[in-house]
Prior knowledge:
By secondary structure, the protein is of the alpha/beta class.
Amino acid sequence: MHESKKDAIFAEPLTQVSDFVFDQRVVEVFPDMINRSVPGYQSILHGIGQLTQRFAQPDSTIYDLGCSLGAATLAMRQNLAGHAGVKIIAADNSAAMVERCRLHLQGYRSDTPAEVVCTDVRELAIDNASVVTMNFTLQFIPQDERQQLLQRIYSGLNPGGVLLLSEKFKSDNEQLNEVLVDLHHEFKRANGYSELEISQKRAAIENVMRVDSLTTHQQRLQDAGFKAVQVWFQCYNFAALLAVK
Ligand SMILES: C[S@@+](CC[C@H](N)C(=O)[O-])C[C@H]1O[C@@H](n2cnc3c(N)ncnc32)[C@H](O)[C@@H]1O
Ligand SMILES: O=C(O)C(=O)C[C@]1(C(=O)O)C=C[C@H](O)C=C1
């Protein structure tokens, strides 16, 4: 995944920055983009693998919602050897992502079947699930539809099943939020992004990626019915939560 082309999508000055879309151009540079943009991305993938090994139930389905190129699917699949009757359904509504994801998964051998479907996750039936992963996807769903989606995920999970939810978030404290945003920008600078790239990317995602506070996420998960919720990873304004049914 690290050997992808370098992300230079926002490197040149744009007269008008359009809303960010997961199109073919993004597909080509996505592994580089996400590794240089999300602090702890590789650690989160590793943790998703570990948690999947623990919580996957025999003869159940595992979901990767907003799978992009299948990084979380691969992390989960590598940890499912010996889990009988488990299959993975990975879903994304970007046709370009889905096409490349299918090719990518073919490059790895596994006994766990993985199907990649091109659909809006809000339309996907979730059933007999033991692990549902949303690795930086909920943030792209309109805020007023997030509760309903979480509710559907909860209903599709078996007792003891888990939701693995990773999100960029904002702090409830305005001053400390600025600190977190600043540390994240420093991280991007250290990874070779220029001020122009950072500010143009920020403008591009502003309207399509609305972030909530961790308090809001925790409250929603509780309201959906999850009996236990735990943050298991955090770096600056990026966090991963484990919610158990
Ligand atoms: C930041 S990427 C996710 C990264 C990926 N999960 C990983 O671990 O590498 C967000 C993905 O969610 C997808 N997405 C956004 N809204 C969606 C929706 N309503 N239904 C399905 N996929 C969606 C985008 O196409 C994109 O591929
Ligand atoms: O680049 C940023 O500032 C991000 O917020 C990163 C982020 C994410 O959080 O999912 C945003 C969009 C995608 O390109 C990949 C990563």
